[in-house]
Write a structure and sequence with these properties.
This protein has one domain (5-207): NADH Oxidase. 45% of the residues lie in helices and 11% in strands. It has ten helices and four strands, in the order ααβαααβαααβαβα. The protein is globular. Bound molecules: flavin mononucleotide (FMN). Residues 11-12, 14, 89-90, 157-161, 198-199 line the site of flavin mononucleotide.
Length: 212
């Protein structure tokens, strides 16, 4: 193992073998997710882990139905084609042995109460929410989860494409935790051969400004 290999071992995986994932491995991976940093250590996350194949297929059906329902209302053919063409990037989870739904709980950015107290404008308060610290916590949790999974030989794929079906998915799985909303999902399983590739990245010089 070389330096930082665990980072480069993670790729979005969209095809899985039918090998089952032992519960101990899932617990280890979720423990890594739980270890993520969060603002004020609020840990405003909740993971719904589905290993029941019928339930996973049920989630896929919910997404398909919502996609069809929305598509039917689209009057612009080009938009309709674009929208329905993305469906396969939301339904490939059907062949995964595990599906993890990620929920975000409430989080008030630091100083919202102060700005309210001093009568700041709604634009100023909105600006604080724009950097979405609450959802940054969730991102940290998901990334930990995925890096741990990759390190243990499992594939995942961060997904927000199906979020337009968030309400229906939540109802279908019976997730009911006060103030929590659906943020993302990931399948998890042993990658099928040829799945460990990723598209190229921007050069560091392009994405970094050094102030020396
Ligand atoms: C917030 C987020 C949402 C994503 N949503 C989807 C998705 O709905 N479906 C999908 O197939 N991939 C999705 N991806 C995966 C990206 O396409 C992928 O991370 C990117 O192409 C880089 O490839 P890599 O993950 O293999 O490095 C998502 C990634 C992120 C971070």
């Amino acid at each position: 193992m070389g330096k930082l290999d665990f980072i480069y071992a993670r790729h979005s995986v969209r095809k899985f073998t039918d090998q089952q994932v032992p519960k101990e491995d899932l617990i280890t991976i979720l423990q890594a997710a739980a270890q993520a940093p969060s603002g004020k250590n609020l840990q405003n996350w909740h993971y719904v882990v589905i290993t029941n194949p019928e339930k996973i297929l049920g989630v896929v059906e919910v997404i398909k139905q919502k996609n069809a329902e929305l598509a039917e209302k689209i009057r612009d053919e080009k938009l309709k084609k674009k929208f329905t063409a993305t469906l396969r990037f939301q339904t490939f989870i059907k062949n995964a042995p595990v599906l993890i739904l990620v929920y975000a709980g409430p989080y008030e950015p630091t100083a919202v109460d102060v700005l309210e107290h001093i009568g700041a404008s709604s634009e100023e308060i909105h600006a604080l929410y724009k950097s979405a610290p609450g959802i940054q916590n969730i991102g940290a949790g998901i990334e930990n989860l995925m890096l741990a999974a990759a390190d243990m030989g499992y594939g995942t794929c961060w997904m927000t494409g199906p979020n337009y079906a968030a309400q229906e998915i939540t109802k279908y799985v019976g997730m009911d935790k006060e103030g929590y909303y659906f943020a993302a999902m990931t399948p998890l399983g042993v990658p099928e051969e040829g799945q460990l590739t990723s598209p190229p990245r921007k050069a560091v010089e392009e994405i970094v400004t050094f102030i020396e």
